[in-house]
Amino acid sequence: MPATQRINICRNGNMKDGRTIMTSAGDWQAFLKAASNKFKMKAKRAFTSGGYELTEEEWNSNAPTVSALLSDAKSTIVVSDGKDFVGFIVSATEKEPEMIGTSTENEDTDSSLHSAPVTMRVLSHKTVIEEEAVKQLEATSKLPNVMYAIGMPDLHPGKGFPIGSATASHSVFYPHLVGSDIGCGMTLTKTSIRKKNVRPVNIDRWVSRLHGLEGPWDGEEKGMTGENIMQSKEFDNQIGTIGGGNHFAELQEIESVVDRETFERLGMDEECLYLLAHSGSRSLGYAILDEHTSKYGQKGIRSGSEEARDYLEKHDYAVDWAKMNREIISLRFLSALQGSGESGLEEERDVFIPRGPLDPLGANIILDIVHNSVVKKDFIRDDGTLQPLYLHRKGAAPSDVGPVVIPGSRGAFSYLVLPSTTDVSRQFSAYSLAHGAGRKWARGKAQNTGRGHEKTATSNLTTTSFGSKVICEDVNLLFEEQPDAYKEITSIIDDLVELELISVIAILKPIITYKSEKKVGIDLCPWRKPYRNNFSLRIARNNCACSLKHRPSIMSEVADVPTPLKEEPEKPWVLLLLVAHSCFGLYFGYDTLSALQDSLSEPHAVTFISSKEDADTKYLFSMTQIAYALSVLCLVFFGGALYDFFGARRMLVMTTFINTTGMFIIANTQNFYVMMAGQFLFAAGCCYLYFVVITLMGGWFRGPRKNLKMNIAIGSLHCWLRIGSFGSYYVLPRVDKKYGLRWALYLSFFICLSSFASAIMFVIFDLIVSRRMKSGLLKNNEVTEETKSAVHDDDIKEIDMKLRNADERGGLYSTVRILKFYWNCYASLPMTYWMISFVAVGFVSSLFTFTSFGVAILKSTRQMSAEDASSTIGFLPISNGLTTALVSTAIGLIGGRTWFAVLGAFLTTGFLLIFAMTPVPPLVVLISLGVIQSLMDAVIFPCIAIVVPKENLSYAISLTIFLYNVGLFGMAQLAGNLADKHLFTWIIVSFVSMSLLAIVWKTCVPAG
To answer: Is 160 part of any domain?
Structure first.
């Protein structure tokens, strides 16, 4: 039987009424009965003197909290009849608390200055306000030097002082009016996830990824928040965690836009999803308040005193810490949605590429507001002069920093609002607004309401009336925060609108709400480590730390309307270069057509079965180039849409069928226009195969050499594809001549079937790989190192959904977005490199006669046409594919990715210059260029997967093919023609080189 102990107790709301009882430490009901008899009331709840509620389970099990409390003879337990913790209330008849600190400012701190009546009001017409909350607000208004005590529509009782209030005092401020969660607020982030992606299958997958966010932020850089004033690493271990209570991170979509002009001025997009993070300074703020109250109780602090400076320094640090906490919460949340696995520098495709303090994958912060703080604010006196007051906000949003978000419960809308811009309206509400819906039920009541059959009730609370999902494994917290425990957000908004304090900009609807997990601080999935050794997130942490160090003090002035994140500076000349580069491919086909029409008398050498001497094939070569260019452009515009619709495996089979069908048509028709259609199908099929194969292969390889393995496989497959396709051009005409047309048709049909069968085998292999990885994850206690890094990869569960979550693809907007990526490639290249290239290439070009240079280019073109181009053209991709694998291996072993790419870019254009000046056998040209270009292939394609957002990967690959192949040779052709007539050869050739270098530079720098 538990031993009887002496316990100090006091009455909730009047902590001066203290008693002593004798009861058993392990018997909760006996304790409540003894307390009830002592105070002549029905005791139902108990708290520590700091407001922490003790539970029956903790009491009966003698939990560490209870044991420590009872072992301290000076500790006191606050007993309540069921109401929330109130603590000590200063009544009008009680002696006012003394002030602490000696002011050094030229201000009269005598409370007699407070002779004017206190302005106290509650901004509520429709919203019901509890009587207890009004009493707490009245008590607050009676504190010395308080001049304004304003209750918001979401006003509700707090621990001694009301939540949802703003209090302004002259020359004195009160830390307990701010509370323990200093800096608590909200951050609204615009993500790059599109609204059209909100489908049940995607939501379920996102929910499955959002785990482990409450564990310590597993970063390598500790103390990133600068000097820790509290001299303890305990609080830094909580950075990036949400905490309990009403804190959350919520993925939202735009339900409707009310004020379109302001909405667009904020840089917001109706088709994007948004993340709202609500959290504060965790234990750091509690420690700061506890340090103050342990020394001074609830005494106010005089302005300008040493004590004031000490508290405000810690206060500002906690506000900064809380802001950083929300940024990292957002970063962790969005990183989890992206499915980033444990990845190093070479596995960055599925992680965010930060471009700012947050900004992962195009995400940027729209606003960040603080609900709990004390700031110095000028109020307008009756005579028009300004009077600086200390404005305390406790659960109140600021109305003087631009738009704010007022969220409802997890089953209600949130409202993005614009505060009134007039000083009269702002001061009417003490420059503050409601910060949410406000509690309607006490937490104890909410815990015991609606449980019934707990399993069914819990299931009902994890899916809202909107169909949104709630992630909260703490059952008690789930019931405490149930939607019915909060007031109607519509009445809160209506009150503020009716008082002309706000206007609504937009309404947001919840999709996923993340609350604290059951075991806070413990990673429920320990094999998932998406934040360790992550290059991109390390960049984000460094940027965040820099932004924190340079963040102005919370006491400084803020602008009325926040400025949205600025776009990169516009550079019109860069856009002109990009447009010119994209047009060179079409010019290549047109110019070759004109050259052949004027100067070629012999039959064209591309000898297909249909290319008889009497057939009109004079323009076939040039027209096939045009068909190739157009097919790639079609891929850029429509490839993503088709991929979204069909998925990876189906798309692979279809593109193989398109490719082989094009080959069959080319080989077996004598009609020129049908042949051109076949060439178009063949070229389109080749381009589609590229990015489908690269996408699928990205899910097959794991470990630190992932991209190296992928390069080798792609290079080998590249050779196989080209040998089969271009080799058929060489073999079929010879079979026709030697054995007859029938055997040539049989052979072409066999090639088509074998290619199609190969694609089927490719799909089967992919299914086997993905199923094995999935089954490896489901085996208990058999999680291998391979599957550890694969947990967050999209192809584990649904490889067909690899790129289908990006609905911005499949239209002009997506193409413009990718073009902007290449625009930024050019813009990122230092001007020094451009100037060096112009001078160097110009010097080399000046050594040659321009007329002979142009003639040499035309002769090389004619020579390649005069010989059997159908057989020799295949050596370029074959040699390219083989050496790409070898060079990738070398780069993976010795590093130097950037310099390999730079070397490849200059060597490619240099060899083009040599081959144009001195006619060389076509076989030598093609093999040489294949080897040289492999230097760039070994770098560019892996880097695209790293740098480009994965929803735009197909566009980036196809556009790279277009710029890299068609545009490259188009520029060489243009250089030759201009050299024959103008003195601009070196400009054009240098542009060829620098265009490639610019793309490579942008892709390589982030990857090392």
So the answer is: no
Exposed/middle/buried for residue 860 (C-beta within 10 Å: 0-12, 13-18, 19+): buried
Domain that holds residue 584: 573-1007
Q: Which residues of 436-463 are buried (b: 16+ CB within 10 A; e: fewer)?
A: bbbbbbbbbebbeeeeeeeeebbeebbe
Q: What is the pTM of this model?
A: 0.47
Is position 436 annotated in a ligand binding site?
A: yes
Angle at which helices 812-828 and 985-1004 cross, to 10°: 100
Q: Tell me if residue 861 falls in helix, strand or coil.
A: helix
247 annotated to a ligand binding site: yes
Binding site annotation covers 581?
no
Alpha carbon dihedral 215, 219, 221, 227, in 10-degree steps, equals -20
The single residue of 435, 581, 604, 718 carrying the catalytic annotation is: 435
What are the contacts of 268-273 at 24+ separation with CB within 8 A?
268/190, 268/366, 268/506, 269/190, 270/195, 271/194, 271/195, 271/196, 271/808, 272/190, 272/191, 272/192, 272/193, 272/194, 272/195, 273/191, 273/193, 273/194, 273/195, 273/197, 273/198, 273/511
Strands (E), 87-145: 99-100, 119-122
Amino acid at 15: M
Q: Could you tell me if residue 82 is left (phi over 0), alpha (psi between -120 and 50 degrees) or otherwise beta?
A: left
Inside any domain, residue 285: no
The question of whether 982 is a catalytic residue gets the answer no
The structure tokens 């180039």 sit at 625
Please, are residues 478 and 514 in contact by the beta-carbon 8 Å criterion?
no
Range from 211-215, 220-224, 390-394, 651-655 that averages highest in pLDDT: 390-394
104 pLDDT above the threshold of 60:
no
Domain count, the chain: 3
Find the mean pLDDT for residues 339-357: 29
* Order of strands across the sheet that contains 172-173: 99-100, 300-302, 172-173
371 is in an annotated binding site: yes
Q: Which residue has the higher pLDDT, 742 or 321?
A: 321
Residue type, 497: V
Among residues 822, 819, 825, 818, the alpha carbon closest in space to that of 1005 is found at 825
What is the three-class DSSP state of 795? Answer: helix
Consult the annotation and say whether 372 binds a ligand: yes
CB atoms within 10 A of CB 592: 22
Q: Is 528 within a domain?
A: yes
Q: What is the DSSP string of 892-956?
A: HHH--HHHHHHHHHHHHHHHHHHHHHS---HHHHHHHHHHHHHHHHHHHHHHHHHHS-GGGHHHH
Half-sphere exposure of 85 (CA within 13 A, CB side): 13
Judgement on whether residues 875 and 757 belong to the same structural domain of the protein: yes
Q: What is the CATH number of the domain that holds 678?
A: 1.20.1250
Annotated ligand binding at 438? The verdict is yes
Max avg pLDDT among 49-53, 304-308, 675-679: 304-308
Looking at residue 238, the DSSP 8-state letter turns out to be: G
Which among 611, 875, 874 has a CA at the least distance from the CA of 736?
A: 611
The letter for the amino acid at 568 is E
> What CATH number is attached to the domain comprising 10?
3.10.20.10
Q: How far from each other are the two terminal CA atoms of the chain, in whole angstroms? A: 68
Contacts of residue 746, Cβ cutoff 8 Å, sequence gap at least 6: none
* Residue 414 in marked binding region: yes
Q: Which residues contact 132 (CB under 8 A, 6 or more apart)?
A: 83, 86, 157
Look at residue 389 and tell me if it is in a domain.
Answer: no
